[in-house]
Design brief:
Layout: E1 21-25, H1 30-41, E2 45-50, H2 53-65, E3 72-75, H3 83-97, E4 102-105, H4 121-147, E5 152-157, H5 170-190, E6 196-202, H6 209-214, H7 230-237, E7 248-250
The chain binds NADPH dihydro-nicotinamide-adenine-dinucleotide phosphate.
């Protein structure tokens, strides 16, 4: 698979996202929290979507303390999200903002790490629901708002195991492969007829709760912090990447 990267030493303009409205899923912690703060710091009104009000409130407060535009909070559990909830959300956002300039699908769960042979069907369904189905549903409901923006960027989050299969990564890996497929299908549908771009990003090993759960024996500080990979997230959500759609990005150089 051909992969892309942000330009080396990419330096986003301080007002890169001024006046933009961007929704981030899983915004209460990890990479999603860092992206929400980075987007707000570059001028965006960030809509913080997550399942826990306490962590979303904390990010909201951080944005306010840093002097960013007032954020929005969307408390939604992607494991149980319904079509009706999505439609209501789109109607509410349409009423308040009229359009959406960016959508970062970041929330995911790791699920169990075991062979397919003994994988639990319940866990499989949960991982595919949160990592894939919820992203499809949200995108479909929010597409009219994205198309109402002058230019919009949708980012889906992939993984190294969504590009090359690896034993014991089960539903998580499969959900990420499917995510890459969704990106390609959607980008191809929107190309030429829409100002909505769609790309994927593989953050690479990053020091978050998910990484620590996946690699408990690893020294956490050997990996970059979420803040360190934000240049790629800023590049992809803003107009500097306007030439890209349907592409798979790496936020870090592949490890040898
Ligand atoms: P974290 O586990 O730290 O964060 C995941 C986020 O998703 C959390 O905010 C979590 O909320 C949210 N989330 C999980 N389930 C739901 C749900 N049912 N409804 C709403 N929100 C939910 O992971 P990372 O920050 O590391 O991961 C971010 C993305 O990057 C993921 O897509 C992951 O697959 C990908 N990735 C990460 C890598 C890494 O090394 N960190 C490497 C490759 C890919 P809560 O806080 O409530 O749990």
């Amino acid at each position: 698979m051909e992969t892309f990267a942000a330009p080396p030493s990419y330096a986003p303009a301080p007002d890169l996202l001024a006046g933009r409205t961007i929704l981030v899923t899983g915004a209460g912690s990890g990479i999603g929290r860092a992206a929400a703060l980075a987007y707000a710091n570059h001028g965006a009104t960030v809509l913080l979507l997550g399942r826990r009000a306490s962590t979303l409130d904390a990010v909201y407060d951080e944005i306010e303390a840093a002097g960013g535009p007032r954020a929005g909070i969307i408390e939604l559990d992607l494991e149980t999200i319904t079509e009706e909830q999505c439609v209501r959300l789109a109607n509410e956002l349409g009423g308040e903002f009229g359009h959406l300039d960016g959508l970062l699908h970041n929330a995911s769960v790791l699920g169990e790490r075991r062979p397919i042979e003994s994988a639990s069907y319940g866990e499989w369904q949960k991982v595919i629901q949160v990592n894939l189905n919820a992203g499809f549903l949200l995108t479909r409901c929010l597409l009219p708002l994205l198309q109402a923006a002058p230019r919009a960027s949708v980012i889906f989050t992939s993984s190294g195991v969504g590009r090359t299969g690896r034993a014991f990564w089960g539903a998580y890996a499969v959900s990420k492969f499917a995510t890459e497929g969704l990106v390609q299908v959607l980008a191809s549908e929107l190309e030429n007829t829409s100002a909505v771009r769609v790309n994927s990003v593989n953050p690479g090993a990053t020091n978050t709760a998910m990484r620590r759960a996946a690699y408990p024996a690893e020294r956490p500080d050997q990996n970059p912090q979420p803040e360190d990979i934000m240049p790629t997230y800023l590049y992809l959500i803003g107009d500097d990447s306007s030439a890209h759609t349907g592409h798979s990005f790496d936020a870090q150089p592949p490890r040898g």
